[in-house]
Design a protein that fits this description.
426 residues; Heat Shock Protein 90; 3-stranded antiparallel beta sheet; 11 helices; 8 strands
Length: 426
């Protein structure tokens, strides 16, 4: 059973128990006054005896229930049974005092209304609605079909008006106790569930931070030993004389390089948001420096780098923006193994800076585009999927966003928005 349903049932049981304990105190007031008014109206003996038996029998049931519930809670089945019995007994009393015109008829709305509040929505509520309609229809139909009887005539005025008033007051008080209690119970259930949800989210966030910190520490601690291993392997590779040995060393060094790249990507991705240091910087100069850095690798692949950078000053973290652009450019170069054009663009649009990395490489399918930026999910051989995730995180930390547009065979365009442009320098 879901936690929400279990909580709801427990709350309904608690409120139902409190309601049934208080009900006799309200009912005794209504039964006594209505009995006195019925006697004062000059009602026939059979009518008085029938109504008295029904009403005082129902009151006795209420008292016994309250006594039984002194040290226990009512069950859901018990609640349903007592509402059904109460409704049927009141309906019988109404039939004996004028049916559709009976002054006892308002009493029916107390058990029926409390039932709706307890059930809420769903099949039980629909079944209870059908029961309520059946009872009310039966009272009206039987009152119209049964012949007038001298033993059970309608209650005379003005006593009928008095009984109607008493019945209405009793019904309103019972509805107030039951419906308000159940409404508070549902609200308390929602508050408990909201507290559980907030607690679960806080716990998940704490666990994520701890896992992130642990992963970053492990990655950081692995970098130094890995650098030592790489240096040793390079030393041994330089002494190798056999071609096959040199080939093996090259493979090992390539794998070490891949491990270092993965660790660097993870450390950049796991860096806390609190570490962001915003300062004025020229985004166009940052991109020009990166273009110079990328140029040797681009030339080896036959890729031409085209730069279109307006002078835009932003308030940003230079290290993070540099990592983001490098990752986007590395993805672009990887998509052009046979050469092509890599366009790096910086523009200002109102109070935002628009940085674009565009290639005319292999492009991505719609499925690949949908998964782009999901950590550790990538279609690139040896990739980690952290590059795009890092770039997207950097964009968000700078009040912007990262948008990707791509089609197979038509290349990819990554647009990183920075929402902290503070000026344009000539």
């Amino acid at each position: 059973m879901p936690v929400s349903e279990s909580l709801r049932r427990e709350q309904v049981r608690a409120v139902g128990t409190a309601f049934l304990r208080l009900r006799p105190l309200v009912a005794v007031f209504g039964v006594s006054l209505n009995a006195a008014l019925l006697v004062a109206s000059g009602a026939p003996g059979a009518q008085r005896a029938t109504v008295a038996c029904a009403m005082f029998g129902l009151l006795t049931l209420f008292v016994v229930e309250a006594w039984m519930l002194r040290s226990r809670q009512v069950t859901e089945g018990w609640l349903l049974a007592t509402r059904v019995v109460t409704t049927l007994v009141i309906a019988a009393g109404a039939l004996a005092t004028g049916a559709g015109t009976s002054p006892l008829l308002p009493l029916l709305f107390a058990p029926l209304g409390v039932g709706f509040a307890a059930f809420g929505r769903g099949r039980p509520a629909t079944a209870w609605l059908a029961f309520a309609v059946f009872v009310l229809t039966a009272v009206a139909a039987l009152g119209a079909l049964l012949p007038a009887s001298e033993s059970f005539p309608p209650v005379r005025a003005p006593h009928a008006a008095g009984m109607t008033f008493v019945s209405a007051v009793v019904a309103v008080v019972l509805l107030r106790i039951g419906v308000a209690g159940l409404t508070d119970a549902h609200a308390q259930t929602a508050a408990v569930l909201d507290g559980l949800r907030i607690g679960a989210l806080a716990e998940a966030s704490l666990r994520a931070r701890h896992a992130e910190a642990l992963g970053a520490k492990v990655a950081h601690d692995l970098k130094n030993p890995l650098s030592a291993i790489k240096g040793l392997m390079q030393l041994l590779a330089g002494r190798a004389t056999e071609p096959r040995d040199r080939q093996r060393f090259d493979v090992a060094l390539a794998e070490i390089e891949r491990m270092q790249t993965t660790l660097d990507d993870y450390l950049s991705f796991a860096r806390p948001i609190e570490d962001v240091r915003l300062e004025p910087l020229r985004l166009d100069e940052l991109v020009r420096d990166l273009a110079s850095l990328l140029e040797p690798n681009a030339e080896r692949q036959g890729v031409t780098i085209l730069l279109d950078a307006e002078a835009v000053q932003v308030l940003g973290d230079a290290a993070r923006l540099r990592d983001a652009v490098l990752n986007l450019a590395a993805n672009a170069l990887h998509a052009m193994p046979s050469g092509g054009k890599l366009v790096l663009s910086v523009k200002r649009e109102e109070d935002r800076a628009k940085l674009t990395v565009k290639d005319d490489g292999t492009g991505m399918t719609s499925e690949q585009l949908a998964e782009a930026g999901v950590p550790f999910r990538t279609s690139r051989e040896g990739g980690t999927g952290l590059g795009l995730a890092l770039a997207r995180g950097v964009a968000r930390q700078h009040g912007g966003e990262l948008r990707l547009e791509s089609r197979p065979g038509h290349g990819t365009q990554a647009t990183l928005w920075v929402a902290t442009a503070i000026g344009v320098n000539s």
